[in-house]
Amino acid sequence: MLIKPTIHVLVVANDIAVMQKCRELLLNEGHSIRTAESTEEALDIIRRHPADVDLMLLSLGLPNDGSMILIETLQKARREIVILTISEQCESEAVEAMRSGAYDCIQADFSPDWFLVKVHRAIEVFRLKRQLGVLRRERQAALTEVKHDENFLAILNSLTDGFVVTDWQTNIVLFNEKASRLFDLTKEKDHGRPVSSCIKSDDLLSFFMRAIRADDSLATLMSGEEPIIKAGGKTLRVHVDPVRNEAGTPIGAVALFHDVTKVTAMDKLRADFLSMVSHELKAPLSSLLMQISVVHDGLAGELTDKQRELLAKAKDKTKGMITLVNDLLDYRRIEEGKSIQRIESLDCSKILQRTIELMRPSARDKEVVINTQIASGLPPFSGDRGGMEAIFVNIISNAIKYTPKGGNIEISLNQAGRDIRFKVVDSGIGIPPGDLDRIFEKFYRIKTEQTRRISGSGLGLSIVKGIVDAHNGSIHVESKVGKGTTFIVSLPVGE
């Protein structure tokens, strides 16, 4: 193997015979050689000729533990010198040296061939380290050269959002004035420091790492609504992307921070106000429905057909308002993490049967046939009774509403592995493919000619999703336009 005469070797040994043997072998290979007989002499050579030491052959027999002191000193100074130790047996002291930073060990009674094999390996390691250092510096330069472009920095500082760039090791290399104010960053204190030390957020560090690793899951996460993080007492919407060089290799990451602290506070205020209004409306609406029902049923006197027709419409509208108020209150509880009020052992088959009987009149009015298949002997389910009722009511009522006259609905409840599986299959109008991913969004309703006359708050499926998630379950939807829709809810029974 040919070795280019570009390697500078320092031999440190207090055994003159070993030193001379190493020197001769290395000179024959065409390397540049310096020698030292003590730790102090070796450190002096490194200080005076830092570019002349690539590889060090270090005897572990130096007095006063001088060999370990030399290794530790070089490690603290972060010198990229490859250290090859020389020892009588290459046992415990050599292991300790390698733990401290040495590359390998050669026995003192080495043969020339074995010596050169070890040296050649060490030289390859040095060359790899040197190439890595060049690559690191190139990456750093690619990111930091923009610091000299005053126009570019002026543009960054004009942004109303925080802007932070890191290198491939997540060290901060650039930020604008907005980021400086958001996170109390200064050039003197924070340039070159890890982003995790300057901006306290585990989620943010994860985003930077995934961007630098070109993790495709980050692109999926960031493609929709950007994630929200908490940092420095602020609520921030953040978007992180990789920074790539001309070859397409990630050399860092860039993050844009939008302060939504005030917006979040306003959202909470609006939600609290909506919750309060809903509470205040529930009692008078219930009272109004009861009074309309009394009059409609003729308990307050005889009615004409026209009066009864008008009261029936008023009764239906009032029921719709009460349903909306209840949906708003249910959704608010889910947002607050209170979708589960009380955990108890439930017989889901009885709850489902009771729900179906309550909803059969609505199905009969549309001449929709409900077929059921409820397995016997289902294990008890630990969950919230009100939550289970809400899941059954919302999914079955949707099936009835979106199934045309004369259609049918198949409802089943059985055990599938360790889950209780609730399934509803209707022969309704179906859901367009473009709407399937959005049906669980709050207030989202499918807008077609067929759905225009169907009333609803657009909260039902959002409530179902929140309750299912709170019970560690899953919900799956399949649909074909004009053919019908299938909802499958799986709830874990546990041990």
What does this structure look like?
Helix 14 (348-365) runs parallel beside helix 15. The chain has 17 helices and 17 strands. The longest helix is centred in the middle third of the chain and has 36 residues, at 261-296. By secondary structure, it is of the alpha/beta class. A hairpin with a 5-residue loop joins strand 9 and strand 10. The chain has helices spanning 16-28, 39-48, 66-76, 92-100, 112-144, 150-158, 177-183, 187-190, 195-198, 202-212, 216-223, 261-296, 305-335, 348-365, 385-401, 433-436, 460-470, and strands at residues 8-12, 32-36, 55-59, 82-87, 104-107, 162-167, 172-175, 228-231, 234-244, 250-259, 344-346, 369-374, 381-383, 408-416, 419-426, 474-480, 484-492. The two termini are 65 Å apart. Helices cover 48% and strands 21% of the residues. The mean pLDDT is 80. The protein folds into 4 domains: 8-142, 3-Layer(aba) Sandwich (Rossmann fold), CATH 3.40.50; 149-259, Beta-Lactamase, CATH 3.30.450; 264-335; 344-492, Histidine kinase-like ATPase, C-terminal domain (Heat Shock Protein 90), CATH 3.30.565.10. The strands form 4 sheets. The protein has a 5-stranded parallel sheet, sandwiched between helices. The chain has a 5-stranded antiparallel sheet with strand order 7-6-10-9-8, sandwiched between helices.
